[in-house]
């Protein structure tokens, strides 16, 4: 949100012309309309070097960035020319799958910039490689050098492509991964394991009946470092259970295929046939992910240290059902969820807990958990977590800026009255649009136009870009169009029109037969009193009574409406009658013009 506000400020000062001095991360937040056509190619080339993870994949802001870049580069269909691909940089990662084969071999180098591809993009990439019409040639001709030159693209190869690679090339590549494994960080190790397992699966598919010789154990003593070079059959036959338990961490620090991991798990279970002691649970590492939900339900997970060790992301991914069972077991044995544990669990898995389990989470744990993404939670769970967050951050309520920063991830569970209080603190909240769109739809409908204006603050113009989303459409439909025009002024359409030509005492204005100039709070009711002898040629002055509307502007200046009376003139020589104040006649409602008064703008939030 801060980067978005800063980008808007720089654009307002016309500093996009000097974007070369700005960090690429900041350029991601500029609106396409703020980038002049003459510099847009260079602009998007620099922006693409920013951290795209700042814009979640699939978010409207990230999609807008790609649309702006494609428009700037003159892309009309699926095919992109090499120069266009070069200007897109990492933005190519968000292209539709059809653009990969349509753009041809030139797209491959650009795809190496992508930290990950969607399933459809991977399929398109493999289809392009299988044509053999690339710099890498036909997969059957690939060797170790080719596989290394593919770089990160090798992670996207499917079994069809890998099965065509010569067995010798696959084995050479596997050995190169094993050799580099010990010097890699956690993220790279995870990728290496994925590759090892993929290559092992390809070998098994290529030779389903081939059994490697396992008639004898290696002549040299087995060490942890030799584990990756043993076949699964040799591991099963030759690895001592006692050696495994004594050197478990060192063994698991090696790159291990899925089949070998299953054999190691079996040997651990043989050592502890009835129950794995809690101190040994902490040491299971990646093997823990191989246990079923039923097996996990018997674990002695009593301490937060054990649970934390098991949840460590460096040991591989858990299935959601496994995590739920693990947490259920921990809570059933009297454990309590702390802030650090909640961070390791993560918001997505937190949402998988039962409502009764979420109710057990202390408010102070939410307060120390940091930013949790609970967008996948049910509405009931969002409301539960919001209530706990509200309690945890109650001491910050007098400082709206810091309070909003802490409560923001949980606002999807906030009631309308709390959102209204946040909007009317007198301090600009500048709620980002992703948070706004994640509010409870039922509660959002209860917010007034002014509430929304105050909540969004400097981000209000972005609301126009999401006017077709169901949430915004349904809210706009129940607002007066005049308020949308006058209070927001961003061009939202589809609000309620004030009826014309019918009696409407709720929102009366000056009658058509009266000419007046008045200052009113919202809509003016004009009251006159009839005089029995008043000729039609006399136009009385109006007495105006103001009626405040709680959700509209504090003061409005109405413009005079010159009106010609349709009453025929009086006969010549009629009596002259002094001006009188007639009684009220039914008021006709007309759409009033926008006020010249501006709604008060809250002060900027300070932290």
Description:
The structure is a single chain. The chain is mostly helical and 607 residues long. Among the domains are: 1-134, no CATH class; 414-497, no CATH class. It is built from 32 helices and six strands. The strands form three sheets. Strands 1-6 form a two-stranded parallel ribbon. 28% of the residues are buried. Mean pLDDT is 80; it is low at 9-16, 209-214, 502-593, 595-601 and 603-607.
List keywords for this structure.
mainly alpha; disordered C terminus; signal; 607 residues
Concise structural overview:
With 607 residues, this protein is mostly helical. The protein is 43% helix and 3% strand. It is flat and about 95 Å long.
Question: What sort of overall outline do the alpha carbons produce when their principal axes are compared?
Answer: flat
Percent range for β-strand residues:
under 5%
Distance between the termini: 14 Å
Q: Mind summarizing the main beta sheet? A: 2 strands, parallel
Protein structure class: mainly alpha
Low-pLDDT sequence parts = 9-16, 209-214, 502-593, 595-601, 603-607
Helix content: 40-55%
- The count of helical stretches stands at 32
Whole-number average pLDDT? 80
Strand order of the largest sheet: 1-6
Radius of gyration (CA) equals 35 Å
InterPro entries: Mesothelin, Stereocilin-rel
Subcellular location: Membrane
Protein name: MSLNL protein
Biased composition (Low complexity): 499-520, 574-593
């Amino acid at each position: 949100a801060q980067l978005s506000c800063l980008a808007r400020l720089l654009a307002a000062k016309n500093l996009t012309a000097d974007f070369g001095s700005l960090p690429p991360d900041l350029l991601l937040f500029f609106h396409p309309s703020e980038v002049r056509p003459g510099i847009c190619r260079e602009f998007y080339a620099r922006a693409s070097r920013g951290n795209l993870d700042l814009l979640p994949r699939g978010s409207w802001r990230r999609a807008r960035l790609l649309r702006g870049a494609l428009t700037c580069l003159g892309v009309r269909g699926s095919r992109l020319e090499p120069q266009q691909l070069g200007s897109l940089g990492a933005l190519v990662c968000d292209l539709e799958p059809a653009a990969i084969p349509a753009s041809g071999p030139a797209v491959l180098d650009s795809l190496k910039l992508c930290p990950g591809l969607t399933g459809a993009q991977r399929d398109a990439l493999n289809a392009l490689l299988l044509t053999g019409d690339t710099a890498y040639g036909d997969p059957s001709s690939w060797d170790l050098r080719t596989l290394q030159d593919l770089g990160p693209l090798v992670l996207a190869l499917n079994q069809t492509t890998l099965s065509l690679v010569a067995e010798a090339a696959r084995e050479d590549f596997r050995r190169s991964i094993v050799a580099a494994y010990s010097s890699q960080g956690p993220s790279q190790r995870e990728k290496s394991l994925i590759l090892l397992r993929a290559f092992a699966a390809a070998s098994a598919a290529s030779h389903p009946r081939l059994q490697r010789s396992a008639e004898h154990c290696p002549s040299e003593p087995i060490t942890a470092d030799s584990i990756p070079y043993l076949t699964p059959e040799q591991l099963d036959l030759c690895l001592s259970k006692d050696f495994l338990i004594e050197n478990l961490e060192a063994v698991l620090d090696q790159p291990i295929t899925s089949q070998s991991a299953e054999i190691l798990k079996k040997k651990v279970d043989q050592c502890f046939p009835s129950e794995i002691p809690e101190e040994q649970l902490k040491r299971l590492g990646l093997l823990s992910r191989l246990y079923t939900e039923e097996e996990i339900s018997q674990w002695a997970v009593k301490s937060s240290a054990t649970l934390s060790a098991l949840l460590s992301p460096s040991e591989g991914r858990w299935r959601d059902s496994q995590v739920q069972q693990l947490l259920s077991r921990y809570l059933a044995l009297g454990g309590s969820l702390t802030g650090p544990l909640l961070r390791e669990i993560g918001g997505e898995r937190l949402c998988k807990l039962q409502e009764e389990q979420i109710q057990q989470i202390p408010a102070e744990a939410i307060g120390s958990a940091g930013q949790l993404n609970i967008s996948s939670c049910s509405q009931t769970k969002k409301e539960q977590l919001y209530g706990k967050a509200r309690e945890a951050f109650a001491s910050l309520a007098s400082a709206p800026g810091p309070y909003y920063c802490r409560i923001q991830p949980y606002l999807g569970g906030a009631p309308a009255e709390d959102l209204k209080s946040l909007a009317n603190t007198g301090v600009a909240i500048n709620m980002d649009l992703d948070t706004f769109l994640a509010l409870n739809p039922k509660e959002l409908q209860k917010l007034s136009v002014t509430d929304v204006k105050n909540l969004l603050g400097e981000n209000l113009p972005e609301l126009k870009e999401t006017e077709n989303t169901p949430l915004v459409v349904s809210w706009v439909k129940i607002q007066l169009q005049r308020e949308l025009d006058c209070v927001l002024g961003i061009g939202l359409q589809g609000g309620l029109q004030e009826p014309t030509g019918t009696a409407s005492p709720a929102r009366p204005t000056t009658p058509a037969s009266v000419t007046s100039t008045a200052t009113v709070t919202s809509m003016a009711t004009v009251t006159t009193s009839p005089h029995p002898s008043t000729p039609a040629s006399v136009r009385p002055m109006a007495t105006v009574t103001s009626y405040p509307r709680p959700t509209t502007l504090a003061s409005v200046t109405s413009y005079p409406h010159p009106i010609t009376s349709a009453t025929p003139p009086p006969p010549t020589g009629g009596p002259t009658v002094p001006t009188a104040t007639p009684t009220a006649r039914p008021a006709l409602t007309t759409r009033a013009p926008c006020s010249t008064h501006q709604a008060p703008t809250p002060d900027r939030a300070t932290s």
